[in-house]
Amino acid sequence: MEKDWSTEELLKWDQDHILHPACPVGQNIGIVFNQGQGVILQDIEGKEYIDCASQLTCVNLGYGRTEITNAIVEQMNRLEYTTLFFGFSHTAAIECSQKLAEITPEGLDHFLFTSGGSEGTETAFKIARLSTKKHKIISLYDSYHGVTLGSLSATGEGKGTEWHGLGPLAAGFIHIPSYYCYRCPFGKEYPGCDIQCAKFLAETIEREGRETVAAFIAEPILGVGGTISPPPEYWPKVREICTKYDVLLIDDEVMTGFGRTGKFFALEHWGVKPDIMVMAKGITSAYFPFGAVAINNKVYHSLEGLTISAFTYSGHPVGSAIAVKVIEAYIKDNVLENSATVGKYALDRLNAEFKSLPCVGPINGLGLFIGIEVVKDKDSKTTFDPELKVPMQILARARENGLLIRGRSIADSPGDRIALSPPLIITTEEIDRAIDILYPIFADIKP
């Protein structure tokens, strides 16, 4: 910066002039980041933080990757922008689509590019409606799909978060209970539940009329809703139902894609192939706003001859070039294997050391996408008074001790959750440091 601003001056300017998402207007958290390297962020005061949130679960490869920044400069010098509108193309988008086709599930090799996840879900809904000539979209409570009107309408977090004050939302969106086994909305216990959460999708399609339902969208693992994994039978059953009722299955891999769970895409854990897949975040490791929607052959052929709407920066050459370089890094550096290995190590250690603490409920996850339930009473599964904002207190103490994590505390939705989703390059030594910071914080929570 040209002017030698103090931290206080920077924060005051920020408070007066910048509106922060997911933060009350006129407030900030009191931290100004200045640089990053690996899994470490540094603020302007020189304090270091282990980023066990990957910011918004998007900095998959960590900070300071010179091969990626070099690719940005190279592409900028060659061609900084041309559009894909009207049938034009450019080499970067073609190379990106070829690279994506190598890693996406077989058959999902037709792509429409976006600038991020919300655009991706909007695009998926448009494609589903165009393809099926039907209009209803079914999604889950406790889900998160974005902040634009359609993606917000599909989001099932309830009035306590994204919906509050923004209604009425778009018509044609229906929500059903999610796969939250610990707090089953049907009052059942796994495995004797017969996977009622999946079977309810079929019941809903029948009640709404199969001739009206275009698609079902869900995250393979609930992200913002608490980093919650489904029972193993859930996704195969959902795939079976969607096929039976001729409803498109939209897989929202915005958070879970690109190695987050130890595989390129989380649905691979259950051997399920969607009809449409939404990708963002890890596709460029957050080095550039970029995303993609993949569709299978059936959907592609149903759209032939039609015109699809998109966005000014869809298929941006720089984003395309970065995506190619990032995918190469995932493969070359064995990042998926590291995610699976370090994730299992972290999960094993958390279960061994945290589970006996009085206010810790179930701990679960896949790869480096791990959630911890915070409870007031284990036997009754009682949560803390939402007014106490216990997860936010945990986050604040972690920040004070140099650790960035994410959490949720939502009055309308059961369960307080803390999430660990660090860059996928994190080492066991670094995850140990993070867990060592967390343990006394959790141990201090009193019923």
CATH homologous superfamily descriptor of the largest domain: Type I PLP-dependent aspartate aminotransferase-like (Major domain)
Count of DSSP strands? 15
Give the fraction of residues assigned to helices: 25-40%
Mean pLDDT: 95
Number of domains: 2
Spatial sequence of strands, sheet with the most strands: 4-10-9-8-7-5-6
Gist?
By secondary structure, the protein is of the alpha/beta class. The protein contains 13 helices and 15 strands. The protein is globular.
Give a structural overview.
The strands form three sheets. This protein has a seven-stranded mixed beta sheet, with helices on both faces. Helix 5 (117-132) crosses helix 9 and helix 7 runs parallel beside helix 8. The protein has 13 helices and 15 strands. The chain has two domains: 31-52 and 334-443, Aspartate Aminotransferase, domain 1 (Alpha-Beta Complex); 66-332, Type I PLP-dependent aspartate aminotransferase-like (Major domain) (Aspartate Aminotransferase, domain 2, 3-Layer(aba) Sandwich). The protein is an alpha/beta fold. The mean pLDDT is 95.
